[in-house]
Design brief:
The structure is a single chain. This protein is of the alpha/beta class. The chain folds into two domains: 226 residues, TIM Barrel; 111 residues. It has twelve helices and eleven strands. The strands form two sheets. Strands 1-2-3-4-5-6-7 form a seven-stranded mixed sheet. The chain has a four-stranded parallel sheet with strand order 9-8-10-11, with helices on both faces. The radius of gyration is 21 Å and the shape is globular. The protein starts with a strand and ends in a 5-residue tail after the last helix.
Length: 361
């Protein structure tokens, strides 16, 4: 119905401890958009085949759910002390004032909206929907009904990148609580847009930080911007020296976080996995595939018998499968056949606890 989260669940941005999110429903209808950066057409054919032609959620609209108010009311009864959030993944173009009032009456505290820009023409172009500009006129209503607005901006060169300052100023005027700034991402199959250059990524980061200081509005640049620049997206965790030889599997974006943490550890080695299945700028550990992990782990030359191998738990979906369709048990079995003892961890803190614990785990 709702679940408490950590910063790995939403955008790598640290969330308050008293937050619960109402997850999307299978009854949510289609979004009606064809955004230029939509991830669904960018999935490789082999991945789509493994998932019956779909990966995760299809082009759905989180708010296009006839049961949403009832689910919010149930969550409010069950979690009276938590703030309730709905994360809109489709830049909702069907939202109106009456629906906002209904959501507020049900007990919703905040709505995270895929907004991208406050320029009507740009939003229509970016989302390829002639009605995508309607929600912009609705922005002041959030404050009026008592719902905090968190605006997501996926900055895409040639579309909304340079509109960042004006968009944030207009959101401040509308009473928004927070803006989250993301660089557009995509796989090797991305078409119709380009990825930001290094110069554009640095401009994003510096401009967002400057706007955060200047405006009466929280402007948060996503840690993925720094990660794409090859810098640590957050502070390196403190990891202890383990008793056994250990290999830590990470995606390319997580590598700068863990490299300083393992630099002085004699028995820990990073296995940085290049995502060749998706390609493009896909480097998150949560998007690793079994095929890519197996390729990199086979290159490892252990110095002892049965060393420990730590996998990112986020690479397995709710069904226990990787994005290329392999079950958790099968992947662990294949890695065990290579001579490893395999454990999955979700957070850097969990990795530290495993390294500190005596074997067996």
């Amino acid at each position: 119905m709702a679940h408490e989260i950590d910063e790995l669940d939403l955008d790598m941005i640290k969330e308050p401890e008293d937050l619960a999110v109402i997850p999307p429903s299978e009854r949510a209808g289609p979004c009606g958009n064809a955004c230029v950066f939509c991830y669904i057409p960018q999935n490789p054919p082999e991945v789509l085949r493994e998932h019956g032609g779909r990966v995760g959620t299809t082009r759905h609209d989180t708010l296009n759910d006839p049961d949403l108010e009832r689910r919010i009311e149930t969550a409010r009864d069950r979690y009276p002390d938590l703030r309730l959030r709905v994360v809109d993944t489709a830049g909702n173009v069907g939202l109106d004032g009456e629906r906002l009032e209904s959501l507020a009456a049900a007990g919703l505290d905040e709505l995270q909206l895929s907004l991208h820009t406050t320029n009507p023409r740009t939003r229509v172009r970016l989302m390829r929907n002639p009605e995508a500009d309607r929600v912009i006129e609705l922005l002041p209503r959030f404050e009026e009904v008592g719902i905090d607005l968190i605006a997501d901006l996926v900055l895409t060169p040639g579309y909304n990148l340079r509109e960042l300052p004006e968009t944030c100023r207009r959101l401040e005027e509308a009473g928004a609580r927070q803006v989250r700034v993301f660089p557009v991402g995509g796989t090797r199959l991305a078409r119709g847009f380009r990825f930001p250059t290094e110069e554009e990524l640095r401009w994003m980061w510096e401009t967002a930080r400057e706007l955060d200081r200047e405006l009466d509005l929280e402007v948060v640049p996503a840690p993925t911007i720094r990660a794409l620049l090859g810098e640590p997206a957050c502070e390196p965790p403190e990891l202890p020296e383990p008793d056994v030889e250990t290999y830590l599997v990470v995606g390319e974006l997580a590598a700068p976080i863990f490299e300083p943490a393992v630099r002085d550890l004699e028995k820990v080695e990073l296995v940085v996995v290049e995502n060749r299945v998706f390609g493009g700028v896909i480097g998150a550990s949560s998007l690793l595939t079994a095929k890519d992990v197996l390729r990199e782990v086979r290159r490892v030359e252990p110095r002892s018998d049965c060393p420990l191998l730590i996998l990112p738990d986020a690479m397995f979906g709710p069904d226990g499968r990787t994005l290329d369709g392999m079950l958790r048990e099968e992947l662990i079995g294949r890695l065990a056949a290579l001579g490893f003892t395999v454990i999955t961890c979700r957070t850097p803190e969990e990795v530290a606890r495993v390294l500190a614990a005596p074997a067996p785990w």
